[in-house]
Design brief:
mainly alpha, 3 helices, 98 residues, 0% strand
């Protein structure tokens, strides 16, 4: 049972760390679109943007509802990173205490 629980925690940590980088990609892509570096008329770029948005929006939308509107500045990815950081640290402590 100990090995199964440790393995599950490690898989969860891997998934959370991967999601951390997907959020980073979302931020970078949004900047590149805003500054006109990425051509959104290109179907490949549009597909990549759509996939990233579908992966991040379900987690970012509730945070955006709670956070105050700051105009053009979106701080919801930072809040999500802080939440992920907390969950990752809790899981790492749980992994080491088992």
């Amino acid at each position: 049972m100990h090995a199964i629980l440790t393995s599950l925690i490690e898989v969860a940590l891997l998934a959370l760390n991967l999601y951390w980088y997907i959020i980073l990609a979302s931020v970078i892509v949004s900047w590149l679109v805003t500054f006109g570096v990425l051509n959104t008329y290109n179907s490949t770029v549009r597909t990549i943007i759509d996939v990233i948005n579908r992966l991040t929006e379900p987690a970012l939308r509730p945070i955006r509802r709670v956070m105050p509107d700051l105009g053009a500045v979106d701080l919801s990815p930072i809040a999500l990173w802080l939440i992920l950081y907390f969950v990752i640290r809790v899981l790492e402590q749980a992994r080491y205490s088992i």
